[in-house]
Amino acid sequence: MSTYLGDSPSGPAITALGGGHGLFATLRAVRRLTDRVTAVVTVADDGGSSGRLRAELGVIPPGDLRMALAAMSGNDPEVGIWTETVQHRFGGTGALAGHSVGNLILAGLTEVLGDTTAALDTVGRLLQVRGRVLPMSPIALDIEADVSGLESDPRASRCIRGQVAVATTPGKVRRVRLIPANPPASSDALDAVCDADLVVLGPGSWFSSVIPHVLVPELFDALIHTSARKVLVLNLAAEPGETAGFSAERHLHVLAQHAPDFRVDNVVVDAASVPAGREREHLRRAATGFGAAVDFVDVAETGTHRHDPAKLARALGQYLTRPHGRSSSVGGGGREIVSWQ
Fold it and tell me: Do both 24 and 113 map to the same domain?
């Protein structure tokens, strides 16, 4: 069973999977719904401060874990100072330049305590986190991708390695793998998925933050067998690099290619990002491959490609009260939800 930080946590259990800014947005939303939140975070970052600490100390890259802790930190003003400090990045040109304070704290605590999860729980108590932040695997992973469009022959594919390389490639990512293949999952992360009432996957960098979760066999098995309602949150727009030119429908197709047996109950799509008409029909059709209904909802921060935490919280909150199973559909697997607008 998952052990939540804080005294007598209340509310439904929500487990959110992802990494980086996408997971940060989800966590800022779901913390409005319950005290029982668990973040399951990707561990393949190889850039910036995280990449340096990973290479020099052999630790799990701490950056995405740190961001998840900050997203779930308490509201007390004194805690706010600690959260700001944990997120602070050193300037200058010396050895500490570019490092986040929180990354260094997590790396140090991991060495002192001998365990990444214990280090995360310790910082979680400092930040008065109501819930937990967990790595998806107890070991650092690498991402490897098959990418086309990098050779003179557009049909030729090249193998590139590393999360940063995959996220910024000018080519077209066809498929990603984890190295080592079939890595172990964090046992606490498995418990969090199995014990959840609601599991949320996405938004985030599709190939480097979302898809990796279904490539960890034990975690994928837990996602398949959990009795929780499963919700997939799509990005508001394609990202430069790994998903340049992707439609919302294409995001679903590539996830299905990596996890053919994956099923979710609902797909949340920002209503303004997919025009009514043929594009929505194609998206609904793609969602049926997951056994999912599509809910078109206003979840964007006005004038941006960022999710608004309050709007996303209202959108996800409906799944805690709606009976489990497919929502009633309009036009073959789609549902307009306008009450949040």
Answer: yes
Is position 218 within any domain?
A: no
Same domain, 79 and 170: no
Domain count, the chain: 3
Stated pTM of the model = 0.92
Q: Distance between CA 54 and CA 48 in Å, rounded? A: 10
Task: Please count the CA atoms within 13 angstroms of the CA of 179 that sit on its side-chain side.
Answer: 12
Nearest to 317 by CA among 6, 31, 20: 31
Q: Specify the pairing of strand 172-179 against strand 142-148.
A: antiparallel
The whole-chain average pLDDT of the chain stands at 91
- Residue 198 has which token pair? 């609601």
Burial class of residue 325, CB neighbours in 10 A (0-12, 13-18, 19+): exposed
Q: Domain end: 137, 160, 186, which one?
A: 137
What span, in angstroms and rounded, lies between the C-alpha atoms of 69 and 89? 16
DSSP count for the chain of H helices, then E strands: 12, 11
Range of the domain at 152: 142-177
Q: How confident is the model at residue 7 (pLDDT cuts 50, 70, 90)?
A: low
Q: Which helix (H) or strand (E) holds 70?
A: helix 63-71
Rounded distance between C-alpha atoms, residue 33 and residue 10, angstroms: 10
